Amino acid sequence: MIKLPFTDPGRPDTRSPVRFLLWVARHQVSTLLAGVFFGVIWMVSQALMPAAIGRAIQNGIVADDNEALAEWALILLGLGATTAAAGVMRHRCAVSNWLQASFRMAQVVGHHAARTGPAIKKKHSTGEVVATITNDAMRAGGAFDITARLAGAIVSYFVVAIILLRASVPLGLVVLIGVPILVLLMGFVIRPLQTRQAEQREEVGKLTALGADTASGLRVLRGIGGEGAFFLRYQDRSQEVRQAGVRVALPQSTLDAAQVFIPGVFVVLVTWLGARFALDGKIDTGDLVAFYGYAAFLVLPLRTAAEAVDKITRSFVGAKRMIGILEVERDAKEPARPASDPPALSTLVDNVSGLVVEPGKMIGLVSSLPDEAARIADRLGRFGDGDGVVLGDVPLADLSTDTIRRRIVVSEADPVLFSGELRRELDPWGRIDGDDQEIHTAIEVANAEDVIEALPEGLDAFVDERGRSFSGGQRQRLVLARALLSEAEVLVLVEPTSAVDAHTEARIARRLREARQGKTTVVITASPLMLDQTDHVFFVQDGRVVAQGTHRELLKTSRSYTWTVTRGEDL
Amino acid sequence: MNELLPIADGPEIRGQARRLGRHHRRALLGMVGLHAAAATAGLAGPPLLGALVQSVQDGTTRAHIDKIIGLLAVFLVVETILTWFARRASFVLSEKMFAELREDFMRRVLGLPLSTVERAGTGDLVSRTTADVDALARTVRFAVPETLIAAITTVLTVAAAVWVNPLAALPCIAGVPVLIVSTRWYLKRAPAGYLWERASYARLAGTVSETVEGGRTVEALNLREERVKRIDDDLDNAYNAEMRTLFLRTVWFPTAEFAYVLPVAAALAWGGYLVSQGQATIGEVTAVALYVVKLADPVDRLISWLDEIQVGATSFARLVGIVRVPPDREAKDDEPEDERMRAEDVRYAYYADRDVLHGIDLDLEPGERVAVVGPSGAGKSTLGRLLAGIHPPRIGLVEVGGVRLVDLPLDTLRKEVALVTQEQHVFVGTLAENLRLARPDASDEQLVDALGAVDALEWVQVLPERLNTVVGAGGHALTPAQAQQVALARLVLADPHTLVLDEATSLLDPRAARHLERSLASVLEGRTVVAIAHRLHTAHDADRVAVVEEGLLAEVGTHDELVEEGGSYAALWDSWHGDR
Q1: CA-nearest residue of chain A to B217?
Q2: Res B86: pLDDT
Q3: How far apart, in whole angstroms, are the C-alpha atoms of residue B119 and residue B121?
Q4: Of A481, B286, B393, B410, which cross-links A442 as Cys (Cβ 3.0–4.6 Å)?
Q5: ipTM of this model?
Q6: What is the distance in angstroms between the Cα of B12 and the nearest Cα belonging to chain A?
């Protein structure tokens, strides 16, 4: 087995679903071929079993020859052993094929999603991306898994047809022509089944969403006493899922019945013709038993073919979705030729708004429209093309994003706390080795000591997905600690204390000022507690700086500033 | 820190399954009967072929052959029709039983004491209401009926072989020892392996979801390659899980597959001996041999669904386990005399021996507005929840009109007091459904009025389908401010005389908050309000301010009184207001 995941899954060919799947296949040709080899042996050895049974009956029992009987029984056992051995090898190849293909696809799509950053969410919902990687990529691998069995099915179908052709042309033709027709017939039953299954899946998805809602919204429900009404809704949905299930039951039971009937027709036809030949002395009794066996065996290649059609179709659909994600491009473009790093302690200037961030200062940025402030933060962090912002004398657009991210860190209003060991989540860059002191210091600045104390495992505690086991205020303080641990030369904090109470906010503001001594900090906020700790405040209206000075100066000189930071209360 | 919700043990699981079975006894029996009939019709093939072989051997006519083949065809038709009915019956029945099961489960979940859920973390409950329900769906829809059908078919096939010739049928059991040993070995290890597999993909889904959801954070903190590595780590874990189960199958598959062929060879060899001894006819041996060949399919299905059933049983245990959680309240029929709320010597602990409230007394005058302030972790939110009757106090009492809140039935309680928190949850469904949670019988006009009262009509009017717009996860996304307005509109509909607001506007940007405060004012009109405040102007506007510090009421009084007193509230007010 090849060790997965791949160190480098490569660059996919996204021109079309076919090319994409072929690109995947090219990397695993040898496993595909090995699978086909064992698949053929596995299914052909099963196809030959009826022949052995027939011979055992004819040459052994009918002819009353114990030696021949023993011989054929042993041959049968040998075929059984071959089937078992080739079967397990085929299975291993199939799993390897499936995993190699699925993992390669999951990796290229997953890596792309991680590297594209926020751009991907503009085109696809999170659920879509998750489904594409965990469902589509995994299912699309099915097309590679099925190759081994499909090859076995095709070869064994010809083997059986040839055996029967040699006994009788019409009999052979029945099989040769009948099987493809029956595969098509099964397709007719399968299609409506798939449509209804898709409908059922959708209903189930809605119910699952409601189930997730129950758990996460229980607190809200409890607050307003909505449990009864909610249960009625759940019950309605649940009954709809049930109805969808009953609708699936119709084509599903038709398919199940067809799987009895269609091969059964073969058995009846082949046995009927066989019995007549036997009566005419064209074949012996053993052959007749064998014919019955062949007809019964054909169920296997038949089902396999139907399954293969299904899996290959699915992988095309999946490939199309994967390409959709692979086509999204990152917003922050890299310059063709990155300029060299401006020296440390350079001034950061946003020419669009007129904001000037002097090195080593703690700056406040106030806007009556939060969107405006967010746009300025976007420019300072160069999330888009970076026009208009200059660090020292180098435009941000000319610097590599890696350089910018190292020197300027923007912690936006509601950042995500990722799941994992808390220590690692606070320092995801792995900057700090061994000593927790620095982490504890940052936690203290963010006034999050109580959050850590409440965790029995402290920094070793495991953070749930998106940190949802923490309250909004706890999470906000933890991500502030994380931003501080980035040790960025310029730290831009957007509304860092919007979810904490005034007591805590006052404390954080004081400690933040001390902790960022000598480094540059921009705080976008409207909180007077925070602004009171800054060296200099810029007040922005309509995207331009309209007033600046210290917080207290501005309180005296600008009415609209005062109005903004005190929320319009005449105090 | 999390202690998981309880999980049911063996006897409880079996008891629950038996109850479910008894409840659907007739339908179950009917279904089993249909499957047995279908399986029996399917067993006609081998003896008919045996008869065919025998008569060809003995010499016969075309007409006789046609008659046997005709019978074969008839049985095929009968088997097909019975199969259709039997399958349909079992699909319909399993849908019904499963719907009953999940609804029963959900009813219990909705009644769970919130403190229990919180101790366990919502994660555990979410995985039960989603992943476990889904896992069980597969078991109930497919594994249970398939196993049942396979078991019926197996038993009947063996019975038919014995019926043809008991002596010749002996080799049926030739594969059994091999099967039992290898399958037991496999089943002991398989469920853990498959659960690991499933968990590993759930983890991958979580990582991808976070990465996409936090795309902006990933970009801002330069974590792109770090996230790539996380995804690869999760895939590595999934790969190891896959390798584990592949190893198990590598051992089990070939032994099982060989165990199916072994009895065929044995039946032929043994049959040949019996024929030579005159103890069986060629036709009988043929029929038995074909039965043994046929046996492979149901036996294979039977044992390959067993691991699925084991996995399903663990999910079932997690669903049934919810029953074990003791209720935290029992409704009595006392009626509150008036609307006066009172808390006396209230203490509460989330974890034993760790009280977060150390004895709080607070009387609320009807119609007054009390702001609760204090540092994070002081117990403000806990106090709010006790005042809203969400948790019963450990010691002390919280009552309205002389009746303890926890003695009121939930729907009566919510006519007295309701709680709105900063946690904004928009439920999946239409906007109207979201609102009607608070008052199921509300007319559309009442919904519009409630939205109007919180100043939300402006944006509701321009929604694609207005009240019928689907919102919540996957639907039309509401801004935090809109979500908060929906929460407030629910309050208007629920219409309790007392409201507890926990930092209701704190997560909003200043402009939206200002807008919302106006909406809020109309909701608060004429009600008793306890506002747990982040922002000091809320406190400034209140009739009284209660300062909570370290689980105790440190200061209570009007804004002016407290500023006068020069305590911790005064200090805070000064720094906020900038008069130092």
Answers
A1: A415
A2: 94
A3: 6
A4: A481
A5: 0.90
A6: 24
